[in-house]
Specification:
- The protein is built from twelve helices and eleven strands.
- With 290 residues, the protein is an alpha/beta fold.
- The strands form three sheets. It has a seven-stranded parallel beta sheet with strand order 3-2-1-4-5-6-10, with helices on both faces. A two-stranded parallel sheet has the order 7-9.
- The longest helix is centred in the first third of the chain and has 18 residues.
- The radius of gyration is 19 Å and the shape is globular.
């Protein structure tokens, strides 16, 4: 059985491969990457490194050849680009005769009002249309997405948000990666949808947990979207990113990530990493990079 992970040099993909190598012989594992030179470390461990570029479908036909089980990790970029890229990947999987596709989707994708939902809706539909058995890993929100705010809190800044009382199912990327690896190699995951969500928390509840880890009180500033946009603009973010970041806050406020589920525990066979422990790990990692 030959497994393949796309985007294997990215933050999530690299963690998935690291976990897979603990249970699967390197000879059974291949990776598809846009820049193979960035995967030399994997090649040196015996992993087959293949060139696969979601913008160049002809490379994907070769990259996916002979693959039994495929993990498509969703790409970065604007919605229109991602829809094209993901469609290319799904079509290539069909051409290659792949027997199972796992795909990293978004919380409650088909019903979601999240501004990032459209590519996931389109990709899930495209996979279903191939007739290939699948598993949709509907990832809620990476705790690592909050590293900028956590760094600010460490430096004494308030936690600024326009997400209101919206709840999020934060979890560590390594928990999402372990779930993806488990589904890719495991049995009984055909035609499944897993809502992978940690315990639901508001911004205030997350900040309270962070304050307990740091042993200090962190003020939370709830602002409107316009004020939030001005604040993050002052951080030097590119203009095109600002509406996206503000839109994420708005979608959280409107409940797009408020998905209660025990699927994480079902897939992992253990509880998701508790939020205090997860925050401690991130704080320690930030401290080590200083």
């Amino acid at each position: 059985m030959k497994l393949l992970v796309t985007g294997a040099t990215g933050k999530l993909g690299s963690k998935v491969v690291e976990i897979l190598l603990k249970s699967v012989p390197a000879s059974q594992l291949a990776v598809s990457v846009r820049n193979p030179e960035k995967a030399e470390g994997l090649r040196s461990q015996g992993v087959e490194v293949r060139h696969g570029d979601f913008d160049r479908p002809e490379t994907l036909d070769t990259a996916f050849a002979g693959i039994d089980r495929l993990l498509i990790i969703s790409a970065d970029g604007d919605n229109e680009t991602r829809i094209i890229q993901h469609t290319n990947a799904v079509e290539a999987a069909k051409h290659a005769g792949v027997k199972f596709i796992a795909y990293t989707s978004l919380a409650n994708a088909t019903e979601s009002k999240n501004l990032m939902a459209p590519p996931h809706v389109a990709t899930e539909a495209a996979i279903v249309n191939t007739g290939i058995p699948y598993s949709f890993l509907r990832n809620n929100w990476y705790l690592e997405n909050e590293i900028g705010s956590i760094q600010g809190a460490l430096a004494g800044a308030p936690w600024v948000t326009s997400a209101g009382e919206g709840k999020v199912g934060w979890a560590l990327q390594k928990d999402y990666a372990e779930a993806a690896a488990t589904v890719l190699v495991g049995e009984g995951h055909e035609n499944t949808v897993y809502e992978l969500s940690g315990p639901l928390l508001t911004q205030e509840e997350l900040v309270n947990a962070l304050g307990a880890v740091l042993g200090k009180e962190i003020p939370v500033q709830q602002v409107n979207d316009e004020t939030y946009a001005e604040i993050i603009k002052g951080l030097g973010l590119p203009d095109f990113v600002i509406p996206i970041v503000v839109g994420i806050q708005e979608s959280i406020r409107n409940g797009s990530l408020e998905v209660e589920s025990n699927d994480f525990e079902k897939v992992l066979g253990r509880p998701v990493t508790p939020i205090s422990e997860a925050l401690t790990q991130i704080v320690n990692a930030i401290s080590q990079t200083k």
